From TrEMBL:
Residues 1-21 form the signal peptide. GO terms for biological process: lipid catabolic process. Keywords: Hydrolase, Lipid degradation, Lipid metabolism, Signal. This is Uncharacterized protein. CDD domains: SGNH_plant_lipase_like. Pfam families: Lipase_GDSL. It comes from Picea sitchensis.
């Protein structure tokens, strides 16, 4: 019940074109930003799911920027918070957060979720399919119920807004690679095809609801996060988990093809797709030239790669002699905040690349170009 009400409200208060909210001297006008996906985008939805076990609701999460945990899986803002600021929008509030103002966007993302419904379902999170349905079902029905003027402004609002999706890493790292019977019944190639066919469906349902401007995130090298290095410490000396990275690369290649195809097929739509994989790999290899002193171990956590004991969790008694509770002094010098997520510093760099990066990071062009072309 609550879901419907909160989604319904903003449609009545959309600024009409030509009224106060639009500043014609400012060509960068995007009325709202809608976010979907996993912990790279979640800004606290999981905190409002009582039995979810994928939460970042304890210190020191958030300590660098917000100075308190917000449910974001990092020390500060996510890449999409930075994008919101560039677009002069507030950080899109979590869909499940009571009494939020959704007039400039909603964040539907849920940490631990994936493209497949089976991903993360033991953690009580919201799969991507449901995130999309929550948006589509309620926006479509409220559009139908509006009078002519209302439909017009709601349609404009939806078509000028930005839709961002970050998903897929968990399908590989937390689902397929951990489930041997899944691997037996479905080849890697078919698994990637399955992910992309679902992704195609989600993009189409957003399009049919009225979305036109999309930003789609490729999967970063999940095989190189501290927890993957820890998992393979003995077998390959703490290098990257290549089985994961190979799947990621296969998926990313397919995603780019899908985006090229949909950009031709979907009239009036533009889908931007990133290449965060190569960007993150470059930083891992040449950390110093990007201002990082550490690109392998987490800033927060303890034990090998600072991830054998998770960030912010209490250290078990029997491990106290072995591990020392550890939080790095300068998170801005670390690539990774915890065992699986980057620091705010990396997110800031990624957001800059999304905004004005060249074709080696984002295609067919960057977000700035998309927005200037539209207005
Ligand atoms: C978690 O809560 C939801 C409803 O809030 C319920 O449907 C689900 O069964 C619960 N899961 C577990 C494992 O308790
Ligand atoms: C593993 O994958 C199989 C086949 O897809 C599925 O039926 C099963 O539920 C999965 N197991 C777990 C623990 O997720
Ligand atoms: C793209 O930008 C990066 C720096 O962000 C630079 O290293 C690279 O040479 C540029 N590539 C092209 C094709 O301009
Ligand atoms: C798909 C979805 O989230 N639909 C929601 C829309 O609003 C109704 C009415 O409150 C909810 O019951 C649905 O769950």
């Amino acid at each position: 019940m609550e879901f419907f009400t909160v989604l319904f409200v903003p449609l009545f208060i959309f600024p009409l074109p030509g009224v106060t909210a639009i500043n014609y001297h400012d060509r960068i006008h995007v009325p709202a930003m809608f976010l979907f996906g996993d912990s790279l985008a979640d800004a606290g939805n999981n905190d409002f799911i009582p039995n979810s076990t994928a939460k970042a609701n304890f210190p020191p999460y958030g300590e660098t920027f917000f100075h308190r945990p917000t449910g974001r899986f990092t020390n500060g803002r996510t890449a999409f918070d930075f994008i919101a600021s560039i677009l002069k929008l507030p950080f899109p509030p979590p869909y499940l957060k009571p009494r939020s103002d959704f007039s400039h966007g909603i964040n539907f993302a849920s940490g631990g979720s994936g493209i497949l419904d089976s991903t993360g379902n033991d953690m009580n999170i919201i799969p991507l399919s449901l995130q999309i349905r929550q948006f589509v079902a309620n926006y479509s029905s409220s559009l139908k119920q509006k009078g002519a003027g209302g439909v017009y402004s709601a349609k404009t609002h939806l078509s000028q807004s930005l839709y961002v999706i970050s998903s897929g890493g968990n399908d590989i790292a937390l689902n397929y690679l951990l489930n041997t019977s899944f691997q037996r019944t479905t080849s890697a190639q078919d698994f990637v095809k399955l992910l992309l066919s679902k992704y195609n469906e989600y993009l189409l349902s957003l399009y049919h609801t009225g979305a036109r401007n999309f930003l789609v995130l490729d999967i970063p090298p999940v095989g190189c996060v501290p927890s993957s290095r820890l998992a393979g410490m003995k077998a390959w000396n703490g290098g990257c988990l290549e089985t994961a990275n190979k799947l990621v690369m296969a998926y990313n290649g397919g995603l780019r093809q899908l985006v090229v195809h949909l950009n031709k097929k979907l009239e009036g739509a533009t889908i931007l797709v990133t290449n965060s994989y190569d960007f993150v790999m470059k930083i891992i290899k040449h950390g110093k030239s990007y201002g990082f002193i550490e690109t392998k171990s987490a800033c927060c956590g303890a034990g090998p790669f600072n991830t054998a004991v998770n960030c912010g969790l209490e250290i078990p008694k029997d491990k106290r002699g072995e591990y020392k509770a550890f939080l790095c002094k300068r998170p801005g010098k670390y690539m990774f905040w915890d065992g699986t997520h980057p620091t705010e510093k990396v997110y800031k760099m990624v957001s800059r690349q999304i905004w004005h990066g060249n074709s080696s990071f984002i295609s067919p062009f960057n977000l700035k170009t998309l927005i200037l072309r539209r207005h």
